Amino acid sequence: MVALPDIGPLLWDIVRNVALVGIGAYLTTRLPSIRRALTASEYRLFDRLILAMVFGAFSAFGNWIGIPVMGSFANTRIVGPVAGGLLGGPLAGIGAGIIGAIPRYFMGGFTMWAAVLANIAAGCISGMVRKKCGAQRINLKVALATAVLCELVLKVLVLTLSKPFSAAWELEKVIALPTIIANSLAVGLFIYIVRDVFAEQEKAQARSAQQAIRMLQQTSGFMHKGLNRDTAGNVARIIYRETNAAAVAITDTEKVLAFVGAGADHHRPGQPILTEATKQAIKDRRTIIINNKNEVGCPTKGCQLTAVVAVPLIVSDELVGAIKLYKTDNEVISSYEAELIRGIADFLSLQLAQRKLVEQQMLLAQAEYNMLKAQINPHFLFNTLGTIRAMTRIDPGTARALIKDLSDFLRRVLNREEEITSLREELETVRIYVRIQRERFQDRLRFFEHIPEELLDCRVPVFSLQPLVENAVKHGVSPKKTGGTVILRAWKDQDDLCIAVEDDGVGFAAAKREAGGGIGLYNVHKRLQILYGNKYGLRIESAEKEGTRVIVRLPEARAGVVA
User: Fold this and answer.
1) Residue 31 belongs to what H/E stretch?
2) Beta strands 445-450 and 484-493: pairing type?
3) How far, CA to CA in Å, does 549 sit from each of 245, 373, 384?
4) Sheet of 547-555: strands edge to edge?
5) pLDDT tens digits, residue range 418-473?
6) For strand 72-74 and strand 247-251, is the pairing parallel, antiparallel, or unpaired?
7) Per-residue confidence (pLDDT) for residue 552, from 0 to 100
8) Burial of 212 (0-12, 13-18, 19+ CB in 10 A)
9) Backbone phi and psi for residue 67, each to the nearest 5 degrees, phi listed first
10) How many angstroms separate the most distant Cα atoms in the chain?
11) Sign (positive or negative) of CA dihedral 455, 460, 462, 466
């Protein structure tokens, strides 16, 4: 019966070395640059080279703490390339294997070539495992299996390449089991520690996301009132409260709008911008990150600000200001803080852009309204004045009534400054217009209203119905020798207010041929869409010789129905 070697002391020495590797792994993963390289969502070449050097150093360290055994070494050298390949892919694994193989080459021994080749092979095998499984599937089970496989490859190479074979065999009988167990545990420990880094990173990202969401929710709506000292002050206080900043400031392109925190005694709202960092961010229209007090550039002696991230606020390619986060006591701006301020700046810029768009829409709506007022059909005025002149000879009373109606109509259309009115008021404008036209058309024009009483207090745009009634009279009823009927209806459709102007005139096709330079339905439709959105506006239903129906759809909630 062959006696088994006593592997207890050797196993204990190797486990002690594994503990050293574990301590080194823990300390290394605390370094910011290593954490960034390990947790990068997409590895750049630079990240892979960093990982190759780090895990190569662990492989070299494994050589250094190796235990001499029968002319060779029992060590943890293979841990570096295996962990490097699993965490960084083939480039990091092979790079770590080569770095760890170099000192092993110079250490010599009859197993030198087998150890060198196995070290590089381990990095390649583990890198291919990561490539096949993907980063998310590299768990403790996969790590242990990969480490055992790489150790077996090492044993095979030692037995195949090392001479004499008998010495290699005797060596492996002593160190095979301890090194397989210990190095597999070391790889598993390394992966566990790094996975803990990933978990911390995910928790930090979750906290960061919650923090960003809180700030966005709290700052939402402020910039709709524009960038001024009040809105900037509210936003700056929220950011200061929610972050670990020593100070937060918001400026326009020339002066401070808000400043909260350290340095508020001399960085006062209304004063010119003091720091060179802010001036540089505004001048270059780019984010500036400075972690040096002198480069922050505050001219005030004794200013506590030692670091800053300054992000420009750009709206529609127009620079409107900057937002800044400061640190004191030689603290530095972290990459997370820089990205957070960039995100807030983008959000505030978007709010300012939305405000600018709303202002432009309101100006456009006002311009459309002014255009409608300017487009009052001159033929309507001439015809009305002609009717009045005729009536003064045969019916002075009717002539006086027409003059009053015409005066009231022109006053309503030309002198009203408000954009929105009640349906009751808009109907009165329509009735005045219809009274004037009835004197001209006599019994050829018939007009009816079907408006529920509860809808009369709805809010509608000024001058939104009269152009539709005029269109019905001019292009629907007037061309017919026998005249026709115009009906005005209103009803609720779920959350919308609908108003229809119907006529039994010549229909759309004929109206389209006869249309001249009068008030177009397009301007009314476009104006309503500017005010309420593309869901709203006009819908035209028409058939030749059967009449036309124009339906106005408005948001009832915005119309403000009074219960």
Assistant:
1) none
2) parallel
3) 62, 23, 26
4) 445-450, 484-493, 496-503, 547-555, 537-543
5) 778 889 989 998 998 888 888 888 889 999 999 999 999 899 988 889 889 988 88
6) unpaired
7) 93
8) middle
9) -105, 120
10) 144
11) negative
**What's residue 250's pLDDT?**
93
What the block records as the tokens of 542 is: 């028409």
Q: Are strands 318-328 and 305-315 parallel, antiparallel or unpaired?
A: antiparallel
Structure tokens at 416: 């009203």
236: Cβ–Cβ under 8 A, 6 or more apart, which residues?
248, 249, 250, 258, 259, 260
pLDDT at 497: 92
**What is the C-alpha separation between 37 and 96, in angstroms, rounded?**
15
Q: How far apart are CA 248 and CA 264, in angstroms?
A: 10
Check whether 172 has a pLDDT greater than 90.
no
* Count of beta carbons in the 10 Å neighbourhood of residue 486: 26
Backbone angles phi, psi at 74, to 5 degrees: -100, 115
Nearest to 372 by CA among 332, 310, 416, 422: 416
Q: How far apart are CA 401 and CA 391, in angstroms?
A: 10
Of 131, 130, 104, the C-alpha closest to 117 is 104
Specify whether the CB–CB gap between 175 and 162 falls below 8 A.
Answer: no
Compute the distance between CA of residue 188 and CA of residue 183 in angstroms, rounded to an integer.
8
Distance, in Å, from the CA atom of 473 to the CA atom of 462, rounded to the nearest integer, reads 20
Domains and CATH numbers, the chain: 8-204 (1.10.1760.20), 222-359 (3.30.450.40), 376-559 (3.30.565.10)
Q: In what order do the strands lie in the sheet with 318-328?
A: 256-261, 247-251, 318-328, 305-315, 288-290
393, with CB counted inside 10 A (0-12, 13-18, 19+), is: exposed
Give, in order, the Cα–Cα distances in Å from 120 to each of 63, 96, 117.
14, 8, 5
Task: Tell me what pLDDT residue 485 has.
Answer: 93
Instruction: Please tell me what DSSP assigns to residue 137.
Output: G
Task: Give one DSSP letter per residue of 113-135, joined into a string.
Answer: HHHHHHHHHHHHHHHHHHHHH-G
